[in-house]
Every structure is written in structure tokens, then in C-alpha cells.
Amino acid sequence: MRPLFQSFRLFIQQIFRDSMLSAVCIGTLVTALFIRFGVPAIENILCNHFQEEVILAKYYLLFDLMLALITPYMFCFASAMMILTEYDENLTRYLAVTPVGKNGYILSRLVFPALISIVVSVALMHWFSLTAWSFAMTLLTCILTCLMSIAVALLTFAFSHNRVEGLAMAKLSGLLMVGLFVPFFLLTNIQYLFSPLPSFWIAKLCMEQNLIFLWPATLSSLIWITVLYQKFSRKIR
Amino acid sequence: MRTKALLIGDIRFQFKYGFYFLYLVFTILYISLLTVLPVTWRAQAATLMIFTDPAAMGLYFMGAIILFEKSESVLNSIAISPVRSLEYVVSKLISLALISTIVGLLIGFGSGNVSNPIILALGVFLGSCLFSSAGLIVAANIVSLNEFIVATIPVELVINVPALAWLFGWKPGWLILHPGICIIEIIQNGEKALPAMFILLVWTILFALLARRVVDKSLRVLGGGKL
Predict the structure, then answer these.
(1) Which of A24, A33, A51, B131 is packed most tightly, with the most Cβ within 10 A?
(2) Is residue B140 part of a domain?
């Protein structure tokens, strides 16, 4: 375990030096504050202006889902950028043959930050969510958004050969999160076209409060992670 | 001649590393999104899309491009070649602005609200050059992607926040001097589009010259100018 923690410490040191750690912490906090206080304020202004009873309030759950996603996504994005930099500088291959190993590398660069992000995400959901959430549901949702963020980070890295392609992939892999919006805006069965996206099932689970959706939400994330991890693994062989 | 060769090289590079493919996907996505939005929202939404994505792409990608060139020692080769820093900067700006302009026009036409395509094209082109210059200035002295992303946050806030406030209705007259607002005003072909064009041109030239200065300095260091 010691090499793993050392590798993780290096990761934290690096993102601290890059100011990315502060950016991620401040970014998530600002987003949380905006969702908790900014969105209801905007709702008031909009309702007064358009003489409607509710406009944004119908989508408060969607804002909460974004709140649950923002922390793991930002942590995993920082990890993906660092993995890309290390890959471009040929450090990844060296690290993979040290006692850290390939699995250890991915654990220290991606899984540990993602696990920490679950704790942060649960705390943010507790203090800043706009709708009522049970602890169990909060925890489940944060674990699922964390799994999805790992898949997004793996996708960013697995299909790129350098930083430039990596950044293009990071932009493209953001599309994996489009599924969060689908059940809110696409009310017909066409919405199931988005079923390969874990975000779609996470939104369904939280909207319908039906645990049956937990299975596709977990499975779709795990399938993405398994497939992408194999590609990742081949890449740093 | 050298600028032309650099430009072709940059376009090839961007094609090879998927910029064109990426923006093909995003253009289709944006246009699809515009078609499902209510007609009254489309013009505003298209402006927002063009301003925050194709126009700003240089700021997003410049860090990765420069870091990649550093790791492949491209900059070392350029430093000892006859290429001038201004030619290098111009090639980067124009090659990225080309994608921005094509994508901007497609999104504009997709929204069905383009009254003057030439003004829109000029606005996106100049806006893209401005953002790319800002990206070059930030990217010249960074060592990692994370560092670049963090360093661009203040630039994005300074350019984007007043521009978005303008887009959503906060329009004091003096704010037209702000470069981000000029881009919005030109994309919308608003009442002040012509003065905005002139102001944006001045900002873009200033930013490009500043980028040239920063690049020149970093190339001199690479080329042994310190000796």
C-alpha cells in the first residue's frame, strides 16, 4: 500500500503546485453556493418578470444532480489532465513498472481522488441541495456520479495519443453527462436512445425514486469503466 | 511564404488531432439543440453557443498545443529557423479562427437568424483571434495542462462575465469598449455592430502583438538568446 499512497501524495502535491486543487475546491464551492442561493434568486426574478408560479423550480432536482456530479467530475478531470501530461512525458510507463504498477497507478491517480470526491459530494449535497434527499439516496447518487466521472476520465485518456487529442476528447467525453438532462426534457420513449449513458439512468433513478434504475445506472457505468480500462491498460503496456 | 507554410502545417496538425472532427460533432449537436428550442430563444441561444465555444476554442486548446509543441521540441526548431515570432503567432491565430468561423457560421445558419453572414464571420474570426492570443499569452510560460486550465479561469471570467451580462440585458453604453461585448454585439448584428467591429479589431491587434512579444521572449530563451 505504501507505494500507492506515495504515488497519491505526488498527485496531490502536483495538483497543489498547479493550483488545480484550489481551483477544484473553490470551483465546487462556488457552484454549490450558486445552486443553493443563486438559482432560487433567479427563479424569483424570472417568476416576477414572466408572471408565472414556477419556472426553474421544476428543475431543482436537475440542479441537485449537477451538484452531485460537479465534485467527482472536477477531481477526475484534474486526474485525467495529469495522466495525459505524464503520458506525454513518458512517465506513465515508468510508473507502471515500479512497485506502484499499472493498477496502482490508476488507483492513485483516479480512484483515490474519486473516493475523496464522494465524501465531499455527500457533504455538499447535505448543505446545498435544493430538494429533500435521504442520506441513503444521496450516498447512492454520489457513488454513481463518481463511477461516471471515472468513466469520463478514462474515456478522455483511452482514446487520445497526446495532450492535444486529450483535450479534444475531454470536451467530447463531456457528452456522457448529457443523459442527466434527458428525462427532464424528453418525455417520450425516445429518451431510451440515451440508455447507454450512465447519467441517463442516474437521472431516472432520482426522478422516479425507483431502485430498479440502480441496476442499469451501476451496470452502464461499470461496462464503460471495464471497456475503457482495458483500452487504458493496453495503452500503457 | 513562410506564414503560408506554417498555416498549412497548423491546419494539418489540427486536422490530424481531431479538431475538425470534434467541431463537426459539436456543430451537429448545437444545431440539433437549437432546433428543439422555442423559436424565440434560438437567436439568443445561438449567440451564446458561438461566443462560448467556437469563438473561444483557442483559449481552451492553446495550452495543449503549446505544451505538445514543447514536448516534441517543435519550438526549439522554430527558435533556430528563420520563422519570425509574428509569423508563428499569425499562423496559430488564423488556423484556429478558420475552424471557429466555419462552425460559427454553421451554428448561425442553423438558428435561422443570420441577417448578415459577412459581419458574423468577421466577428467570430476576430473574436477567435482575440481568444487565441489570450491563450498564447497564458500558455507561453506554463508547464502542465492543469496549470494552463487554472491560469485561463481569470481570463475567461474577465472576458465572459460582462459579455454574458450584456447578452442577458445589462447594457450600459460604455461597456461596448469591452472586447467580449464587442464579439456578442457583432454576432447579434446589433445597433452598435460597426463601432464594435472597430473596437474589437483594436483589441485583437493589441492582444496579438502582446502574444507576439511573449512568444518572441520564449523563443529567444529556447534559441539561446540569454547567452
Answers:
(1) B131
(2) yes
Question: Which value, in Å, is the radius of gyration of the alpha carbons in chain B?
Answer: 18
ipTM of model: 0.76
> Is residue B174 in some structural domain?
yes
Q: Do B149 and A20 touch (CB under 8 A)?
A: yes
Tens-digit pLDDT profile for residues B57-103: 999 899 889 988 888 888 888 888 888 999 999 999 999 999 999 99
At residue B38 the predicted structure's pLDDT band, cuts being 50, 70 and 90, is: confident
* Cβ neighbours of A122 (radius 10 Å): 18
Cβ–Cβ below 8 Å for B71 and A84: no
For residue B83, count CB atoms less than 10 angstroms from its CB and return exposed for 0-12, middle for 13-18, buried for 19 or more: middle
A87 in Cβ contact with A107 (< 8 Å): no
How many angstroms separate the CA atoms of B7 and B3, rounded? 6
A78 interaction partners in chain B (CB closer than 8 Å): 146
Q: Nearest by CB to A19, from B19, B67, B150: name it.
A: B150
Cβ neighbour number for residue B184 with a 10 Å cutoff: 26
pLDDT tens, residue by residue, A108-146:
888 999 999 999 999 999 999 999 999 999 999 999 999
Question: What 3-state class would DSSP assign to A93?
Answer: helix
Instruction: Specify the pTM.
Output: 0.83
Domain encompassing residue B103: 2-222
**Residue B30's closest chain A neighbor by CA?**
A175
Q: A99 CA to chain B: closest CA distance, Å? A: 25
Q: Report the number of distinct structural domains present in chain B.
A: 1
